[in-house]
Design brief:
Elements lengths: L7 H4 L3 H18 L4 E4 L6 E12 L4 H6 L4 H5 L7 H7 L5 E13 L4 E10 L7 H7 L2 H9 L5 E5 L6 E5 L4 H14 L6 H9 L24
């Protein structure tokens, strides 16, 4: 790895720091009504970030349309990514559209010492999306990246705290790409919330986008801990 200059603390995120960043992240989410919350496992005592949102997408998008409109495909697939279910039902959904419920969890991986994004998705009738359906919903430009390297390969495995099947973006190279992002951020002498930088990078792969206001997170009490 060529980013040693960033420091050992950048390459491996301690669990204590992970929770501090999550607390900061949730506080801002509550201020802007973004829906993130911290949940604690009753049995294990560990916790994780959680958010549920509803997305509307076209039922059947022709392959040729994907090829012709790569620049606009994200708006076509996810035109209402921040809508609540009540808002969507009130507005009405066209016959050519379908509503999907996405549940996102951010957990800490002790093995990799980085955050990991778990998620699952289902239709309103409760039918879960298959891995193939998840893959087809990924933006074309991200599909190319997924095929190039394992850091963000989508797989299905058991949720470590809930024991239920979830999809996950594999974290094996998170340290590598985060090192570059953190180094660039610090060259600009900016406070860095690891969760914001990381989630802004991996979230869009699966339709999860952060409002720009998260980039302004810079509490004075944490600026000296980086």
């Amino acid at each position: 790895m060529s980013c040693n200059m960033a420091g050992e603390e950048d390459l491996f995120l301690e669990e204590k720091r992970f929770k501090q960043y999550c607390e900061e992240f949730v506080k801002h989410s509550q201020q802007i009504g973004d829906g993130w919350e911290w949940r604690t496992s009753k049995d294990l005592g560990d916790g994780y970030l959680s958010k549920t949102q509803f997305q509307v997408r076209n039922r059947n998008l022709p392959p040729d349309l994907k090829e012709k409109n790569n620049d606009n495909i994200e708006q076509t697939l996810f035109p209402h990514v921040e809508e609540s279910l009540d808002d969507i039902q009130e507005a009405g959904v066209c016959a050519t559209e379908e509503v999907i419920r996405y549940e996102y969890h951010v957990l800490y991986s002790s093995s990799y010492q980085v955050p990991v994004l778990y998620f699952r998705a289902c239709f309103l009738d409760g039918r879960p999306l298959t891995l193939d359906e998840i893959w087809k919903s990924v933006h074309a430009c991200y599909q190319a990246r997924l095929l190039e390297g394992p850091w963000d390969t989508i797989t299905q495995q058991e949720h470590p705290l809930l024991g239920q099947p979830f999809f996950v973006l594999h974290p094996c190279q998170t340290n590598e790409f985060m090192c570059s992002i953190l180094t660039s951020s610090r060259k600009q002498d900016r406070h860095t919330n690891y969760i914001v930088l990381w989630l802004s990078t991996v979230g869009p792969v699966v339709g999860l986008n952060l409002p720009l206001s998260y980039a302004k997170l810079a509490p004075e009490q944490n600026t000296n801990t980086d």
